[in-house]
Every structure is written in structure tokens, then in C-alpha cells.
């Protein structure tokens, strides 16, 4: 009969802060696939690892699990797990796994059957929920065979120890007493790096889920923001608008633009994308990053001082990667200053041109960095933060991203106190680039175009109808992609302003139907969308050859992309 695994002695189950790698260890190469690294670690583990679905059938195993159960790994996939549990233990295991599928982690001892030898083996099981993108789809269990040690007692616990050089490491201790009350045998494994990689894998999954959530929320926010901004622009275009009401409309317009920038910054940071160097304004990337942290800096009472070189030229860089670097440094500065109480804090961001380089300095008024740690803070897994407050990978990733730009990054202590991080990037003259095709010819004076606006947001439809009608165009609107197809079959339009996301027929589907059956109308499509974080959508827009106006938009942005052609007969 099985029994729960023995609890570790009091005071031995201690979580430790992430620890540094050995001094002088090289930083990870940029683009390290942490999920693949974690998968390779699991495959090499001596312990059996079994992944099961909600139906209690095996989804995947490592080689150690196949050896333990006496089967080929491929043969185990799809088999009920109960078939490999000793018959007397099946009820106990089922009850434990019920709790795992309810979201609880379980640790217990049981017996499994080796099909090759017919022998029952005693195993210690650690089983937890297995989630994919936040959805619980089964269980993930590790099994350690302790049959040969069972004559006495056996147990497993984790603790920390300090090496001679002062470094803290996490160890896993498996102990056994072959003969009760006699000698104790211990197997000690250093699991520091393994635990850090597991935490990073979990964090990676969380970020992926957040990115998908942000994409959907941003689209829902950008649609009403587009309507608010558009109507504010229409009000401001009224020549007889009273001055006091004009001030109110200007405030509505500026605040809608501010909200739009915040949403766009969130999208930029959450977006997964391939590295691509384009003409980049460093000052703008810093402003976008500071805007992301603006609220946190404000509530913590941290002043932000921008000392920018206004004549700083653009350089070829990946703005998304640089924003990740800047965000890491700014967040670290916030947390450092928060640890120093009773002092007015200031974050200083300074840019300037230094010969053929651009120099960025981010300085705080925190406690500074101990001199003996200045060379180690960029090592993987090194952190000075309390347990649970950091992974030790932020600065090492930042180092890799800066090196990918052929630049340098280092830390120093500011003369008046606090830490200063310095980045130098090579100044590379921009070359022309563009993501979406846009028609550059504006309609000739006096042209009156027949325009169809297709958007499921009423505020956007009405605003566009009023603006374009005021420009002398004949405008029809519809909220439905299906109805738009009916109209396009029965009438001719000079331009079709088409939203990418609609409930019945998406902009992409409608465009593909037009391209197949009515290429002339397809060549007159102008897309609008509030969701450019969606990579498949970006690829589609790039390949469509049609212009795209992003929401929230300036109404005047439609003028240069409307076709310079009179309405067709």
C-alpha cells in the first residue's frame, strides 16, 4: 500500500534567490530557444517524465519513463496510464490525479509495472497540472524509482548552500537509509540552472498568453478610440466652433491620441517578431518606453529627466529589441530606487552623438552597484533582487541584444551616487524601407469619388461618411462584410475602405473573394485595422499590395490613398 512521501525536515525546504553563473561565463547567444533548451534538459533527466491528457492517456514520455515501464517510448503514447500502475494502487493514483486535474500539485509514492520484466517498481511521484496557453489540458509527472532503497527510508527535499566564493546554489537532496537507524545515503544534485530554466519557460508561456490577450484588447480599444478621435477632428474642423468648446474638443482629441500611443506601445512590446533593422529614432524609442512606465514612475514619486540631443540622427536598428533593453534598464532603476527610502529620486535619460556612435545613459539615484559585482551583473541568472523578484536574465538578454546591434553596454556608479548604465550603438545611416504599400497620388481637384465604407463600428462609419462627404465624395456605408459583397456585385465604387476584423466576413476574406472574382474592385481597397500586432495579419497586409490606415487615424490620412480617378460608370 502506498504512502505519501515523507516531508522534508523543518527548515530544509527553503527557496533561494536565483544565483549567478560562474564568473566570466559568456552571455547566452541572442535568440536562445529556451523552450528547446528545457525540452533537451527533460529528455536527458534520469527521472521518468510522463505527460498525460485529460483522458488519462499518455501524450509524451522521455526515455527514462520508457525504461521504467519496460516499453518503447512510441508504444506508450495513447495508452491509459492505469495500465502501467500496480492493480492495488490504481484507485489511489486515480484519486491523486483527480486533484491534479483540478489544479493541485500532488506528491506521493506508488508502484508501477515494468511490462518487460513483470516486476513492480516503487516510485516517488511529483505530478502537476500541464497547461498550454493558460488552458489545463492534462498532467505532467516525474517518477523516481526508489525500489532498491526501500528497505529503509527514503525522501527528497531541496535546500540551499553557499559555495566558498559566496555564491548561493540550490540543491536537490535524495536520502535513503538502506538499514533503518543505520547509515544514511544522500544523492545531492545542483539544480540551480535547471530551476531557472523551468522558471523562464513558465515566464515565456505567460508572455505569449499576455501577447495574445493584449492583441485582442488593443483591437477593442482602438475601435472606440478611432471614433472618439475622428469626431473630435470633425468638431475642430468646424469654423464656427465657439472657442471654449474648441478647447474641450482639443482636449478630447489630444487625450484620445495619448491613449492610442499607450495601446500602441503595449502592442509593440507584446508583439513577437523577427529581428528587423529599420531607420530608428532613438529618442522616440526612449519616449515610448518611458510612456509605458510613466504611471509606475509617477506613483513611486520618481521624477524623469530627459536630456536628449535633439539633433540626434536616425540609425538602423530594431526598435522592438531596443525597447526591450531600455525597459529592462528602466525597470531595474525603479526597483533599485524603491529600496532607498527617505530620498527624492530622479531617473535621468541622456542621449548624445559621440563620433560615429550614439550614446545612451540611464542613471538612477538608488544605492548603486557594489564594485565587485559590476563585471558580474551581465552574467546569466545573476541577480541582486530578493527571491521571486527577478530571474537574472534581463541584463544578460540586454547584453546580447546590444551586441547584436554591434554596440556596447556597461554599468558604472555615478559620482553623486546611484547606478548608471551606458549603451553605445554604431551610427548606421538609414536606407529606405516600408511595410505597407500606399498610393501616393492624391485625387485631382474636383474629383468626386464613389466610396464604400465597410466597418462594424458605427462611430467609425459615421465619422468617415461625414469627412468624405465634406470633401465632395459620394459615400455609402455598411457594417457587414456579406452586405458589402452584395453591393460590390451590383454597383461600381472608386474606393472601398475595408476594416480587417468584422463578425460575419473579415476584411481578408472579402478581399480574397474580390481578388478572385472582381480584381478591379480589389485594386481599389484601402484597409483599416487597430491590430497590427497580429503577425499573420501583418503578413497578409504586406502581401496584398494595398494601403493600410491604422486606427485610431487622422481623417486626412485617407486623402493621399484615395484613388485619383473619377467615379466609374
Give a written overview of the molecule:
The protein has helices at about 35-45, 65-70, 75, 90-100, 190-235, 245-270, 280-290, 295-300, 320-340, 395-405, 460-470, 480-490, 505-515, 520, 535-545; strands at about 50-55, 60, 105-115, 120-130, 135-145, 155-160, 170-175, 185-190, 280, 300-305, 315, 345-355, 355-365, 410-415, 420-425, 450-455, 475-480, 495-500, 525-530, 550. It has about 575 residues and is an alpha/beta fold. Among the domains are: about 35-145, Beta-Lactamase, CATH 3.30.450; about 280-435, 2-Layer Sandwich (Heat Shock Protein 90); about 450-560, Rossmann fold, CATH 3.40.50.2300. The strands form five sheets. A five-stranded antiparallel sheet has the order 2-1-5-4-3. The longest helix is centred in the middle third of the chain and has 45 residues, at about 190-235. The chain is flat. The termini are far apart. Residues about 1-20, about 430-445 and about 565-569 have low confidence and may be disordered.
How would you summarize what this structure contains?
This protein is an alpha/beta fold and 569 residues long. It has helices at 34-44, 63-69, 73-76, 90-101, 192-236, 243-270, 282-292, 294-299, 319-338, 394-404, 458-470, 481-490, 507-517, 519-522, 535-544; strands at 48-53, 58-61, 106-113, 120-132, 135-145, 154-162, 168-176, 185-190, 278-280, 302-307, 315-317, 345-354, 357-363, 408-413, 419-426, 450-454, 474-478, 495-499, 525-529, 548-550. It starts with 33 loop residues before the first helix and ends in a 19-residue tail after the last strand.
Amino acid at each position: 500500500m502506498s504512502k505519501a512521501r515523507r516531508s522534508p525536515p523543518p527548515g530544509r525546504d527553503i527557496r533561494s534567490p536565483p544565483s549567478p553563473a560562474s564568473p566570466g561565463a559568456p552571455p547566452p547567444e541572442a535568440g536562445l530557444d529556451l523552450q528547446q533548451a528545457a525540452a533537451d534538459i527533460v529528455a536527458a533527466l534520469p527521472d521518468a517524465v510522463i505527460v498525460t491528457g485529460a483522458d488519462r492517456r499518455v501524450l509524451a514520455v522521455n526515455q527514462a519513463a520508457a525504461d521504467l515501464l519496460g516499453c518503447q517510448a512510441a508504444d506508450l503514447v495513447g495508452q491509459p496510464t492505469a495500465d502501467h500502475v500496480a492493480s492495488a494502487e490504481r484507485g489511489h493514483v486515480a484519486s491523486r490525479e483527480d486533484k491534479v486535474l483540478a489544479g493541485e500539485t500532488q506528491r506521493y509514492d506508488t508502484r508501477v509495472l515494468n511490462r518487460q520484466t513483470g516486476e513492480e517498481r516503487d516510485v516517488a511521484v511529483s505530478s502537476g497540472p500541464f497547461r498550454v496557453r493558460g488552458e489545463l489540458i492534462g498532467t505532467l509527472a516525474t517518477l523516481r524509482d526508489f525500489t532498491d532503497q526501500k528497505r529503509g527510508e527514503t525522501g527528497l527535499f531541496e535546500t540551499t548552500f553557499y559555495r566558498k566564493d559566496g555564491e548561493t546554489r540550490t540543491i536537490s537532496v535524495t536520502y535513503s537509509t538502506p538499514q533503518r537507524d543505520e547509515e544514511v545515503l544522500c544523492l545531492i544534485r545542483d539544480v540551480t540552472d535547471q530551476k531557472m530554466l523551468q522558471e523562464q519557460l513558465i515566464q515565456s508561456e505567460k508572455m505569449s498568453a499576455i501577447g495574445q490577450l493584449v492583441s485582442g484588447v488593443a483591437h477593442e480599444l482602438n475601435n472606440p478610440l478611432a471614433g472618439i478621435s475622428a469626431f473630435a477632428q470633425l468638431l475642430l474642423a468646424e469654423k464656427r466652433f465657439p472657442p471654449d468648446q474648441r478647447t474641450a474638443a482639443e482636449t478630447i482629441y489630444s487625450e484620445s491620441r495619448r491613449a492610442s500611443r499607450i495601446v500602441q506601445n503595449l502592442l509593440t512590446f507584446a508583439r513577437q517578431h523577427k529581428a528587423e533593422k529599420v531607420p530608428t529614432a532613438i529618442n522616440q524609442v526612449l519616449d515610448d518606453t518611458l510612456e509605458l512606465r510613466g504611471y509606475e514612475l509617477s506613483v513611486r514619486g520618481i521624477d524623469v529627466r530627459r536630456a536628449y540631443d535633439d539633433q540626434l540622427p536616425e540609425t538602423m536598428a530594431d526598435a522592438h529589441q531596443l525597447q526591450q533593453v531600455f525597459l529592462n534598464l528602466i525597470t531595474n532603476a525603479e526597483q533599485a530606487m524603491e529600496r532607498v527610502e527617505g530620498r527624492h529620486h530622479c531617473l535621468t535619460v541622456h542621449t548624445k552623438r559621440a563620433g560615429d556612435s550614439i550614446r545612451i545613459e540611464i542613471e538612477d539615484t538608488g544605492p548603486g552597484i557594489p564594485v565587485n559585482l559590476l563585471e558580474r551583473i551581465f552574467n546569466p541568472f545573476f541577480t541582486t533582487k530578493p527571491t521571486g523578484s527577478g530571474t537574472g536574465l534581463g541584463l544578460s538578454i540586454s547584453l546580447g541584444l546590444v551586441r547584436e546591434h554591434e554596440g556596447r553596454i556597461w554599468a558604472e556608479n555615478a559620482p553623486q551616487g546611484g547606478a548608471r548604465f551606458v549603451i553605445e550603438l554604431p551610427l548606421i545611416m538609414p536606407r529606405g524601407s516600408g511595410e505597407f504599400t500606399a498610393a501616393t497620388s492624391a485625387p485631382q481637384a474636383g474629383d468626386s469619388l464613389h466610396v464604400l465604407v465597410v466597418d462594424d463600428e458605427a462611430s467609425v462609419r459615421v465619422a468617415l461618411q461625414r469627412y468624405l462627404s465634406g470633401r465632395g465624395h459620394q459615400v455609402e456605408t455598411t457594417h457587414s462584410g456579406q452586405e458589402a459583397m452584395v453591393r460590390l456585385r451590383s454597383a461600381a465604387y472608386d474606393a472601398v475602405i475595408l476594416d480587417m476584423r468584422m463578425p460575419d466576413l473579415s476584411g481578408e476574406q472579402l478581399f480574397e473573394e474580390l481578388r478572385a472574382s472582381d480584381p478591379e474592385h480589389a485594386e481599389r481597397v484601402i484597409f483599416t485595422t487597430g491590430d497590427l500586432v497580429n503577425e499573420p495579419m501583418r503578413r497578409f497586409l504586406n502581401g496584398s499590395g494595398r494601403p493600410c490606415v491604422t486606427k485610431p487615424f487622422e481623417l486626412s490620412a485617407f486623402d493621399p490613398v484615395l484613388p485619383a480617378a473619377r467615379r466609374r460608370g
